[in-house]
Amino acid sequence: MVALLEWWSGTECTLYTDPESYPFYGKENAIVILNHNFEIDFLCGWTFCERFGVLGSSKVLAKKELAYVPVIGWMWYFLEIVFCKRKWEEDHKTVVQSLQRLKDYLENFWFLLYCEGTRFTQKKHKISMEVAEKKGLRKLKYHLLPRTKGFCVTVQHLRGTVTAVYDSTLNFRNNQIPTLIGVLNGKKYHADLYVRRIPLDSIPENETECAIWLHKLYQEKDELQEKYSLTGCFPSPTLTVKLVK
Ligand SMILES: CC/C=C\C/C=C\C/C=C\C/C=C\C/C=C\C/C=C\CCC(=O)SCCNC(=O)CCNC(=O)[C@H](O)C(C)(C)COP(=O)(O)OP(=O)(O)OC[C@H]1O[C@@H](n2cnc3c(N)ncnc32)[C@H](O)[C@@H]1OP(=O)(O)O
Ligand SMILES: CCCCCCCCCCCCCCCC(=O)OC[C@@H](O)COP(=O)(O)O
After folding, report:
1. Please, where are the H alpha helices in 24-139?
2. Of 58, 72, 195, 201, which one has the greatest count of Cβ atoms within 10 A?
3. Ligand 2, closest atom to CA 39?
């Protein structure tokens, strides 16, 4: 799949991050938080995993339905991907059990959380911002309101195992809207990924405070996205690494 993106479609991925954080990538366990706007964002995610040697140990909190996708779903099942029904009462036990298993994982892993819980659409955004208003939370322009339970329980159970959260924002240059069909047809895209490394120690242990922390993070993500949307690039100073084979 990674080869499909890179060699077949020639898609390029550029990483923007600060020079102090760069040496940690691939050398520690991390929770990755990513915006969820594009059909191929998981493919770009895998490309970064491959470059930092964690492709085989890339985990995700994925919706249950994906476990039934032929080949990929079965592969994910054996790779200990954590599946959820997106109903906390039903998910709590299985998510905690899966996180406990991750604690004993022998290689460095990245655990991806799409905290928005679903891919962004204007319709979902409208509903989500109505929820934000009811809850007295600041409205977001580019993101859905993050679902906090999965993040808080992950931080709680992986504390001591994971050392950082990678707050990641993916965009495509020139307002491209990449599709899987486009990739299969060999269309070339250019992905820009901004990553901010946040030490896990700096995230509150208390669940309510942790949830507030996540909402604040999404407000900051929204500000960053506003900058990218206006200028077409991420703010400096950053270390820019073009991922080439
Ligand atoms: C150096 C390089 C760095 C990085 C490289 C980048 C990436 C590489 C990393 C890894 C790659 C690895 C793999 C990629 C491969 C494949 C990925 C493919 C697909 C996965 C995609 C998915 O499946 S996304 C969907 C599933 N995942 C999730 O949902 C995760 C997020 N969700 C949660 O965590 C949830 O909390 C939950 C699912 C665990 C439980 O959800 P639930 O809704 O039951 O509980 P919550 O309390 O969280 O939410 C309920 C509260 O939310 C309020 N709310 C907000 N908005 C709404 C709304 N629109 N409608 C209703 N309710 C809403 C609600 O009010 C509730 O509030 P309360 O106050 O009542 O609690
Ligand atoms: C070499 C052969 C290549 C064949 C290419 C076909 C590839 C099929 C890959 C299917 C993998 C699907 C992973 C999609 C991940 C994803 O983006 O899921 C959607 C969820 O986030 C949100 O779902 P929802 O909230 O229900 O909209």
Report:
1. 41-51, 72-78, 88-103, 122-135
2. 195
3. 17
Ligand 2 within 6 A of CB of 185: no
* Residue 111 Cα: closest atom of ligand 1: 10
Tell me, what's the pLDDT at 242?
A: 74
Whole-structure pTM value: 0.95
Query: 119: Cβ below 6 Å to ligand 2?
Result: yes
Amino acid at 139: K
Q: Domain coordinates of the chain in residue numbers?
A: 2-244
pLDDT band at 5 (very low <50, low <70, confident <90, very high): confident
- Residues 6 or more apart whose CB falls under 8 angstroms from that of 75 comprise none
Mean predicted confidence (pLDDT) in 2-19: 84
Tell me if residue 16 falls in helix, strand or coil. Answer: strand
Give every CB contact of residue 180 below 8 A, 6+ residues apart in sequence: 39, 40, 43
Class level of CATH domain 2-244: alpha beta
Tell me the pLDDT band of 208, cut-offs 50, 70 and 90.
very high
Segment among 81-95, 109-123, 226-240 with least mean pLDDT:
226-240
The ligand whose atoms approach the alpha carbon of 59 most closely is 1
Q: From the CB of 4, is ligand 2 less than 6 Å away? A: yes
83 lines ligand 2 (CB under 6 A): no
Instruction: Please state, in angstroms and rounded to a whole number, the distance separating the CA atoms of residues 46 and 236.
Output: 25
